[in-house]
Write a structure and sequence with these properties.
Shape: elongated
Protein name: DUF2188 domain-containing protein
Strand order of the largest sheet: 1-2-3
Organism: Pseudomonas putida (strain W619)
Largest sheet: 3 strands, antiparallel
Distance between the termini: 30 Å
Order of helices and strands: EEEHH
Length: 62
């Protein structure tokens, strides 16, 4: 996931971009804290056993 912070040119907001999504923050500190938590969660170890035990939804037929 491509994650970065950008200052809005039009207003006093800060945007955290996450691929095609973005979230607005009032201060650069809030934006950087969000990026820190998000990055930690993305980089955290994930158990494949927990992922595999989740029931998958059946595919929708057209």
């Amino acid at each position: 996931m491509n994650v970065y912070v950008e200052k809005s040119a039009n207003d006093n907001r800060w945007w955290v971009h996450m691929d095609e999504w973005r979230v607005s923050f009032r201060t650069p500190t809030e934006a950087e804290q969000f990026v820190g938590v998000l990055t930690a969660r993305l980089n955290a170890p994930h158990s494949l056993n927990k992922i595999a035990s989740v029931a998958l939804r059946p595919a929708k037929e057209a």
